Write the structure tokens for this entry.
Amino acid sequence: MANFAKPDVPRFSVDVYQNEYLPEGGREVNAIVTVTATGGGTIGKGPGAAAAGRRPSAAVAVMVDCSGSMDYPPTKMRHARDATAAAVDTLRDGTHFAVIGGTHVATEVYPGGGRLAVAGPAAREEAKRALRRLSAGGGTAIGTWLRLADRLLASADVTLRHGVLLTDGRNEHESPDDLRAALDACAGRFTCDARGVGTDWEVKEVTAIASALLGTADIVADPAGLAADFTRMMETAMGKEVADVALRVWTPVGTAIRFVKQVAPAVEDLTGRRTEAGSRAGDYPTGSWGDESRDYHLCVEVPPAGLGREMLAARVSLVVPGPDGTAQNLGAQGLVRAVWTDDMTASTAISPQVAHYTGQAELAQVIKQGLDLRKVGDFDGATAKLGRAVQLASASGNADTAKLLAKVVDVVDAATGTVRLKTRVAEADEMTLETRSTKTVRVKK
């Protein structure tokens, strides 16, 4: 393990968990890399917290769905206004911010004029007055909301840029390609949390937004819960202290990276997001960090070697963009090794961490497969997949996912994965399971 710290920012450390032993001719090396950031700034969050000092500068754009469906029921729009006001109240003094109203076009609600406001008592009150004028009407084109957020956030000379997006419907007024192009344009420029309110929105759209922009996705089935959810989201955003952290993986000649996945606190495949970083190294984006810990599963293919040989299979470090645009190494480093042995006990053992997260990744996959099969009427296939999900959730101690599964299936025997599909399932329960399917639990101590 190695770590690094600068004054007033988190200290990063890297720990590697693996079974480095391979049988003769073995080629696949798996490791769980735990990255932890601790000991950042201690200035409080919310109104009154210092704008300067230990916390970095930040800009936030809140995108509120104002399409016609937000008027059904009428209380939905009121709860959205209240939630946005709660988010504004949670902003740290000195934070640059804007509120965007989203329909088939994007509108600057506050402050307007292509500008960002700076959070303080007066600006918060002005923003809340502007929110009272929000009304529902029009269609939904989320890509336009994201592009406006990007332009506004880019106008501020700040360290951290973050978006919060709320929608209650499907993205019906632009093509999937338009939304994908907007996400591609915004990726790496700001992070974004996405929320679906009610049950008339598309889970895959909301989760895709969060995935592309390295944020979180969730459902708020009852609009009355929006204010509490927005407050928690903004508190988390205000706790971020380092932006654009990348996991840099170096591998020697003859090796190939099979995949790099975040596996805690949620499953996110980063393999296709690699950017080359010189000879034999690549960077995988992880977004913004506060005081927190995340786990990554690294799988490397190494050239076969004889008994007794050993090699460095990969070196993992952390980098951020430096002032001149070049990568600045944070100093934290972990080594992944490969050792060939004829000790069958050693070479066939599976690291508990690797086994746990392999199961968690499968859990997320079979839940999505099971729900998709259920939607198309393949009830036998759905039963098999969701039964496997129940078995995996039980074995890993993922109690939250187990509770969500129990709302979709009747569990006969969790240990064997024996279940029966429920004949009637509330739409909110099915959407909650699908939205939260990638959330994981950490290895039992």
Q: What stands out?
A: The radius of gyration is 23 Å. The chain is about 30% helix and 30% strand. The longest strand covers residues 327-340.
